[in-house]
Design a protein that fits this description.
Number of helices: 4
Protein name: Gibberellin-regulated protein 12-like
Largest sheet: none
Family: Belongs to the GASA family.
Order of helices and strands: HHHH
InterPro entries: GASA (IPR003854)
Helix content: 40-55%
Shape: elongated
Keywords: Signal
Distance between the termini: 43 Å
Strand content: under 5%
């Protein structure tokens, strides 16, 4: 029973560590981590190719990807504030 509880606690700690690694404040990612963070960010969209393309561009510039598959852009001001020529959001 003790081993089971320890295993659960270890998984919870790792889940929080992964969340903090792949989403968070600007500059929290290294360029090589962008692909993994964007794969998570774009996992729920039906437009995966476009989402991954723009997410990786934004991550390369900002070194940050918001948590989850939608929203939470306040976590990454650079990601949130980069706009298209028409004023729409550049980053998914």
């Amino acid at each position: 029973m003790t081993k089971f509880v320890c295993a659960i606690l270890l998984m919870l700690v790792m889940a929080f560590a992964i969340k903090d690694t792949y989403a968070g404040k600007e500059g929290s990612l290294r360029p090589k981590e962008c692909a993994t963070a964007c794969a998570l960010r774009c996992s729920a969209t039906q437009y995966k190719e476009a989402c991954l393309t723009y997410c990786n561009l934004c991550c390369a510039k900002c070194l940050c990807v918001p948590s989850g598959t939608y929203g939470h852009k306040e976590e990454c001001p650079c990601y949130n504030n980069w706009k298209t020529k028409k004023g729409g959001p550049k980053c998914p």
